[in-house]
């Protein structure tokens, strides 16, 4: 095995920090032996902090209308083949009720940037959910908004916010997004969410077009310094009706490698084994857990809209009812020695460890 890579893995485990240059070398040093070496460490650290528990988040994809035009995204504004929908408040509350029965204690409201959901309407929904389910956490993943808006949603009861930074390299960001979208604003949003007091998640797609070891090193350095509570990474998967539809998907191996690196860097972080990972390999999510992930996000959206929230081609779990999705994931986790738990699944801070 390459001694330099082993030394970098050991250093990361020890110091939870590397230089940009070291991250770039580590990113390129993946071999089957090095993956085994880092995977074993990532599993051990994850077990010391979170045991064999896997936290579950009930994902409610509540609107696929979006004002944005991200070049990789299947629900981008210019995709006229996308069949648009918006769930009603009552439909969302029904998803929560079904999810609660099934043991979910975190609901994630995810959607495109849909102007219908202004602060007033969203705050009303958040208050209703938090009032009905006082032992549950509510996560929002609805893109870029003003600081005032984030504050209002937080005051209404939202606990967490997922906003992937997508890439920490400004030039790379500008290649993946249209001119009207701004890298600086995305970063500003992340800082503001943290200042307000949300548990914040950032993240990126593995293998996105024009990604290089250097841009990945920037992602890792950014994540190290931002020190998020959650970090969502999953493979880029092309969607046929987008400008990037002819690019290759990210790979299983690279995603697993990066999951383990992130676990060593931020031992306490909440790290999902994503649906995208399950889409590129039938055992992707199980392998994600074995690489150091500790969260899964089964779908709670009504089956009637599942296929319409198609961010990328061949997305899995579009035909199953919530109960089947949860049961399927429970079996999958059990098969590798882990178990789904009924718990809000908050991040364990260093002082609690
Ligand atoms: N609108 C919100 C936002 O921008 O954060 C949330 C919804 S957005 C669809 C959620 C995430 O999906 C994005 O942050 C992006 O990383 C991921 N995504 C979009 N298109 C994808 C693709 N083709 N392959 C993999 N992930 C994708
Ligand atoms: Fe808006 Fe993807 S472009 S959610």
Explain what you see.
- The chain is of the alpha/beta class and 353 residues long.
- The protein has helices at residues 3-15, 20-28, 32-50, 89-101, 119-132, 147-156, 170-176, 183-196, 213-226, 252-265, 275-280, 284-290, 303-306, 322-335, and strands at residues 53-56, 58-63, 106-111, 137-141, 160-162, 199-206, 230-235, 295-296, 339-341.
- A six-stranded parallel β-sheet has the order 2-3-4-5-6-7. The protein has a three-stranded parallel β-sheet with strand order 8-1-9, with helices on one face.
- The model has no long low-confidence stretch (mean pLDDT 97).
- It binds S-adenosylmethionine and FE2/S2 (inorganic) cluster.
- The site of FE2/S2 (inorganic) cluster has 8 residues, from loops.
Question: What is the topological layout?
Answer:
Elements: H1 3-15, H2 20-28, H3 32-50, E1 53-56, E2 58-63, H4 89-101, E3 106-111, H5 119-132, E4 137-141, H6 147-156, E5 160-162, H7 170-176, H8 183-196, E6 199-206, H9 213-226, E7 230-235, H10 252-265, H11 275-280, H12 284-290, E8 295-296, H13 303-306, H14 322-335, E9 339-341
Parallel strand pairs: 1-8, 1-9, 2-3, 3-4, 4-5, 5-6, 6-7
Helix pairs in contact: 1-3, 2-9, 3-10, 5-6, 6-8
The structure holds S-adenosylmethionine and FE2/S2 (inorganic) cluster.
């Amino acid at each position: 095995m390459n001694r330099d890579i082993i030394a970098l893995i050991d250093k990361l485990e020890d110091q939870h920090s590397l230089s940009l240059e070291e991250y770039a070398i580590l990113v390129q040093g993946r071999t089957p032996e090095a993956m085994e070496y880092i995977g074993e460490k990532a599993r051990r650290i994850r077990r010391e902090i979170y045991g064999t528990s896997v936290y579950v988040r009930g994902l409610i994809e509540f609107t696929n209308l979006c004002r944005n035009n991200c070049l990789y995204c299947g629900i981008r504004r210019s995709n006229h083949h996308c069949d648009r929908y918006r769930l009603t408040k009552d439909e969302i509350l029904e998803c929560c009720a079904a999810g609660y029965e099934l043991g979910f204690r975190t609901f994630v409201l995810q959607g495109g940037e849909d102007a219908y959901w202004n602060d007033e309407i969203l705050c009303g929904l958040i208050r209703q959910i938090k009032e009905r389910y006082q032992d549950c956490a509510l996560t929002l993943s609805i893109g870029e908004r003003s600081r005032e808006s984030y504050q209002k949603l937080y005051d209404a009861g939202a606990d967490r916010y997922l906003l992937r930074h997508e890439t920490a390299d400004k030039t790379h960001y500008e290649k993946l997004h249209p001119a009207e979208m701004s890298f600086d604003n995305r970063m500003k949003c992340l800082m503001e969410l943290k200042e307000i007091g949300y548990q914040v998640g950032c993240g990126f797609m593995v293998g996105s077009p024009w990604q290089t070891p250097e841009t990945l090193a920037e992602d890792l350095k950014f994540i190290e310094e931002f020190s998020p509570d959650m970090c969502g990474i999953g493979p880029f998967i092309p969607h046929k009706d987008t400008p990037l539809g002819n690019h290759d998907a990210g790979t299983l191996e690279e995603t697993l490698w990066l999951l383990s690196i992130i676990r060593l860097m931020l031992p306490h972080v909440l790290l999902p084994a994503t649906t995208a990972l399950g889409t590129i390999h039938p055992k992707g999510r199980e392998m994600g857990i074995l690489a150091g992930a500790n969260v899964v996000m089964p779908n709670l959206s009504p089956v009637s809209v599942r296929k319409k929230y198609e961010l990328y081609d061949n997305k899995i779990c579009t035909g199953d009812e919530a109960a089947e999705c949860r049961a399927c994931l429970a079996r999958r986790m059990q098969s590798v020695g882990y178990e789904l738990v009924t718990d809000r699944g908050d991040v364990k801070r260093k002082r609690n460890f």
